[in-house]
Amino acid sequence: MSAKPRVLLVEDEPEIRRFVKSALEAMNCVVTEADSVMSATHVLSVNPADLLVVDLGLPDVDGQTLIERVRSWSDMPVLVLSARAMEQDKVDALNLGADDYLTKPFGIAEFKARVQALLRRHQRQDDLPTSVLSFGAVRVDFTKREIFKDDALVHLTVTEFKLLAALVKSSGKVMTQKALLQEVWGPAFKDSSHYLRIYISHLRQKLEEDPARPKHFVTEIGVGYRFKP
């Protein structure tokens, strides 16, 4: 990652775009702007980013389409900004691979805190296990950040990989929901249990033989989750 984080801001309302751009530049970010999914797709093809900040209500295609496209090839953090406040909208965006969701209107301090948390999560590598781990048909090389299932490469996002690492470090032990949320997302997310449910589901879908009957990512009802190798 460059010394100055590169952020692609996708927002079609000029006033909001100026407000958010100003906040990002105050955080020493290099900001590129787009006002549609088409223009954002073009920008990303020629100008890689370290963070995507995207509105959902875009003029050409819903912003969820952009999240889905980005997740097909990149693990960059994705922060959604949206006036849609229903929990299902948040769940849908997280299921597509967004890392965080901020409802409009929002305060500048909260926005900056969310951005900083996402960038820190993307940059930090020192707290990952250094070994190669095998369980079931899965092999994980934490140093190379490579995961194979039945010898096929599996793509995990930054958040999914960090959640996997947190569970593996406490292999065999129960981790409470609050402990996992704080370690993976940060202190501000200790009550955001729906984030954890969604991302545990992602790991099961990608790494379990039978996601409906998980053997490795086990729910401890009322407490949290346990990784069983």
Would you give an account of this structure?
By secondary structure, the protein is α/β, with parallel strands linked by helices. It folds into two domains: 6-123, Rossmann fold (3-Layer(aba) Sandwich), CATH 3.40.50; 132-227, Orthogonal Bundle (Arc Repressor Mutant, subunit A). The chain has eight helices and twelve strands. The strands form three sheets. It has a five-stranded parallel sheet, with helices on both faces. The chain has a four-stranded antiparallel sheet with strand order 6-7-8-9, with no helix packed on it. The protein has a three-stranded antiparallel sheet with strand order 10-12-11. The chain is globular and about 50 Å long.
Helix and strand layout, with pairings?
Layout: E1 6-10, H1 14-26, E2 30-34, H2 37-46, E3 51-55, H3 63-71, E4 78-82, H4 87-96, E5 100-103, H5 108-123, E6 132-135, E7 138-141, E8 146-149, E9 152-153, H6 158-169, E10 174-176, H7 177-184, H8 193-207, E11 217-220, E12 224-227
Parallel strand pairs: 1-2, 1-3, 3-4, 4-5
Antiparallel strand pairs: 6-7, 7-8, 8-9, 10-12, 11-12
Helix pairs in contact: 6-8
